[in-house]
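2024-03-11 09:14:02 DEBUG pipeline.ingest accepted 1 chain
2024-03-11 09:14:02 DEBUG pipeline.ingest length=469
2024-03-11 09:14:03 DEBUG pipeline.predict start
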Amino acid sequence: MVEGPGCKLKGEKIKTKFNGAVVHSVTGTAIEKTSKKDKPIPFNKNFYALVGRMLEDVRSLGKELFMFFGDICLRVHFLMAGSHWVNGKKGDSDPSKPAEKPILEILLNNDKLSFHKSAVEIRKSSLCFERYENLKHLDICSAIFNHKAAVQLVMQQKDRQICDILLDQDILPGVGNIIKNEGLFDSGIKPDEQVGKLSEAHVSHLIRMTRDFSMLFYKCRKTGQALNKYYKVYNQKICKQCQSKIVITRMGDDNDRMTYFCPQCQNNDLKARTLPSKNSLLGWVINSQDEHSSEWTCLKCTLINPATSSNCQACNSLKTAANKSNTGHAISKSNILSSNDNRKRLVSDDIHQPDSKRLKQNPAIQTRNAESGSKIPCCKGHNVKCSLLEVRKQGDNYRRMFYACKLPKAKQCNFFKWADDEFPLCEHSKRCVMRTVLKQGANNGKKFFACSLNKNKQCKFFQWAEGYD
């Protein structure tokens, strides 16, 4: 899912490039699907209404992008993997070509703006502007984010689980699954905790940490840095702080989104423990009188800033003597890490080195992989353990698993191998599928083989998938 930081950055790029330009033509699959002979085009799909109009303004609200053309507005939602292309270049930088046709392509003056894998529709500008004005102070990436209003709104949802509230785009626009998981970890709160059991101080800290990670997200996307090196629980198997096993499960109303949490760091012992102070933007923060005591909190938007910043990195407010010197929540060093050596080990560059680099430094890694009983092959180009992936494109091979080189896209070799060639056969003599235990408990995260047929036709075949981790 393209989350708030990504949508905000896309909006800034489009506004810089196209504001004031006039639409000369529109094409795309969204038009082809609705332009049928002898049938009127619905208002929300009448993209021809854009022709001849000037782009007057571009604004983002959470995961929504609004492009204002007079009294009508083009509303764009980038869904799971949406993107915008300018003159055939992705995000004004990637020279590669999209494989699929654009959902909508607009010729603005002499430049082409196209949207891919996104949802687009025409709305009345007055309604879009009203929604923007009503929620802009709650947008997790907004420079005018109102921390107090966000806390009060969350506290009103007493019977709802906190993991659902964070993803509610009418409460905290822009928070997606990555931000949800990392924000909850940084605040030490278990995702399925009901708001009514949380104190206002804890909710305040959660909002602060969620916004903090959102701004880190935005800065990484803007500068081209890898965001995943800052993940502590999302898509992780081991907690980056305490080395405990991460629980991967589905919880809350939105069961389509995976939830990752550490049962040790997020233990919900809210009365007996001090407030957590893990902070993703500034690194592993220990809020006692130590080397981090000169950090300051913006009084306007509550973002925690490093000591070297004279202006808030979110809203650009000046640092003053009234700013707090730290986050206001004390926690002992022993609650974070047991030793400085362990702390350095957790944040060392070695954690984020690609396997190919570590393999060159230590050839014994390859031998250990073989001796451990791993069934995942190594790619031929780099001799590095492959990634086990799943086909996401609709078709005959949808959700079929395969092996591919795990290095970054620019460095990948062309290794490819179907994984299910070695999977066992079920009682129907069909290749099994690999599943992961998502129920909380001792077996959480373990992989197993099961019948590939629909639930009402499945046989009872079951076998643990050893060696595929």
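2024-03-11 09:14:41 DEBUG pipeline.report The two ends are 25 Å apart (CA to CA).
2024-03-11 09:14:41 DEBUG pipeline.predict end
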